[in-house]
Amino acid sequence: MPFVFNFNSLALLGIYHQYPADAQLIKLKTAPMTVQPKLPYVVFSRVDSPSLWVRFSIPGQGQKRICLKTSDEEDAKRRAEIEYQRALWSAEQGTLPGKTSFDKVARQYLESAQLEAGSNPSKLSKVAADRGVLDRYMVPFFGRSPITAISVPKLHSYMEWRRSYWTSGPGAKETHIAYERKGRRVIRPAQHIEATLSTLRREAVTMRSVFKHAVRLGYLKASDIPKIDLVAEERNKRPSFTDAEVAKLMQVAEQRMIDVLTPQRRGKQQPNSWKDMDGKEITPSVSRVAYERTVLYWFINIALETGMRPTELFNLDWAHIVGFKEERDKPIVEQRIRILAYGKGKKPQQLVPNIGAATSFAALWDAFKKVHGREPRDDEPMFVNASGERAQSYKKSLNALLEAAKLKTDVFGQVRSAYSFRHTYATRQLRKGTDVYTLAINMRTSVRMIEMYYSDVVPEDLAKQLEGSYD
What we know:
Blueprint: E1 3-5, H1 7-12, E2 26-28, E3 41-46, E4 49-58, E5 62-67, H2 73-93, H3 102-117, H4 121-142, H5 152-163, E6 176-181, E7 184-189, H6 197-216, H7 243-259, E8 264-265, E9 268-269, E10 274-275, E11 281-282, H8 288-306, H9 310-314, E12 321-322, H10 324-327, E13 338-341, E14 349-351, H11 357-372, H12 395-404, H13 419-431, H14 436-442, H15 447-454, H16 460-467
Antiparallel strand pairs: 1-2, 3-4, 4-5, 6-7, 8-9, 10-11, 12-13, 13-14
Helix pairs in contact: 3-4, 3-6, 7-8, 8-11, 8-13, 14-15
């Protein structure tokens, strides 16, 4: 069907520039109109910019607005096409800068880690530790900064800020730190000291976990994760115990158990009952303090006989002691057990303890049975408090014991801790001639670490060679 056009209208559209003044309506036969495809971007101007801009959307990335740095329309159209194609390619390669902030990725990481942890105690403690570091330090510092905008210089700025957080930074005026433990609010004094290199390294693992989660979600390429090198500090010999000091420590520990063995104090009978984690009343023949000191006593023995890390010890369940039930009725010299250690790695690693460890495990089993009136189940933790809950730390009670034995520090003034039993184990093994490679495997560490920290430990048979004459 023919269309009717008015020349005046055509002129307004810029189609005709000259036409008769007395032109009348005429009928034109038109060719079929070609429909221009809709462009995936829009070129527009802004009142606050002399240049033209382009905007477009990329699936999964949201809308992008880019300044084209030209006011020429034709040049702007050409540049708009280039910017759009570049963004498409970058999105496909996973390199398109996004707006996802650090705090959002951190929250997503914690949610994912919490789900992955399930009911695993070691993983749950890792999530709790990560949450504390992120909430107090990293999220306040990086905040809404895009995860893609955090560069190596930015990380160095953070490390300097974190190092002095408690001395001249935001924490300098804080007197106490409040946190939750097992549903209860706990308050402890703040320590106004600089963060050590080991602390910064430990927290850097948390930061890297957030970046790796960003890669997993497609916000970042793995090759774009910023890396920061923390300069190694001077290595010191780790504090351990001599054989004489071990004997003294165990003697004091035994006496402290005897002092509170019965629920009496200053001649008065004390209430001797408490509730377990299920709310059941416990009324044993020994006091609560005596039971907890007994568990600490055997904790020390097992640490000395296995060389396990404190974390590995606290992660132990009875099922992790392979062959315990089958071997416990045999003579001590014939008992052979193996331990599955859960600690730094995701998978359990088997270790061979000293023969004396079997006796310590049996004593711990009997102590639990005496207090709780039943044998521990395979899925129950080995080291527990009086209520039967998994112990997370014996720092307070161990420090009290070390103070009582006057063994809190070694001869160099270095403070001893639960880790010192692992160092004592390593020292003893090397002195009796255990091969360094075998020891490294059994301690779940590297030969380099053994050589770095224990190179001054000389096996006795080699010492005799060194002390002999040159004849």
